Amino acid sequence: MEIVLTWLIGLLCLASLVIYWTDWRKTRNRVKLGQAAIAIFASVVVLGMAGMETYDRMTTNHIVETGECYVVDDRSSKGSSNVTLWFGERSYGFKEIPDVAYGPGYVFTCRAIMTKQMQSGIDYELRSLDGELLYSTHSDD
Predict the structure, then answer these.
(1) Contact 36, 20 (CB under 8 A)
(2) In angstroms, rounded to a whole number, what is the distance separating the alpha carbons of residues 94 and 74?
(3) From its phi and psi, is residue 67 left (phi > 0), alpha (psi between -120 and 50) or beta?
(4) Is residue 13 within 8 Å of 42, Cβ to Cβ?
(5) What does the alpha-carbon distance between residue 6 and residue 132 come to, in Å, rounded to a whole number?
(6) How far apart are CA 73 and CA 99, in angstroms?
(7) Is the pTM of this model over 0.85?
(8) What is the pLDDT of residue 116?
(9) Among 116, 59, 60, 108, CA closest to 92
């Protein structure tokens, strides 16, 4: 769903670019030219992000990691990523912090989906060692 919204926002930026550009051609107003330049920048950034994510998903560059893991809060050390899921020596960053008790002392059965190109986390779920679903970033669960 996130990728569809990103494409929609990018296309809206592109539509605003067309509107501002036609207004500028009619009036030759500098403000309209500035708005068109901002719309160009926004369109390139948003459509570029959507394009990279779509490419990852279309070329099946997804990594699915399952197994025992623990979660570490790393908001201060990694910028945009808020938590890290550790699978033994491998770690992956995710944006959404779980609403269950976590940390190196809590071991979960995890399933995480990442991309190979951007090395960014998409979705993850935490289950108890008995298999009960404790937390999921999937909106349909």
Answers:
(1) yes
(2) 10
(3) left
(4) yes
(5) 32
(6) 12
(7) no
(8) 65
(9) 116
Residue entry with tokens 């190979």: 116
- The one-letter amino acid at 128: S
Q: Which tops the pLDDT comparison, 74 or 133?
A: 133
The DSSP symbol for 98 reads P
* CA distance between the termini of the chain: 14
Give residues with Cβ within 8 angstroms of 103, minimum separation 6.
70, 71, 72, 73
* One-letter identity of residue 22: T
Looking at residue 127, its amino acid is: R
For residue 91, which of 125, 114, 117 has the smallest C-alpha distance? 114
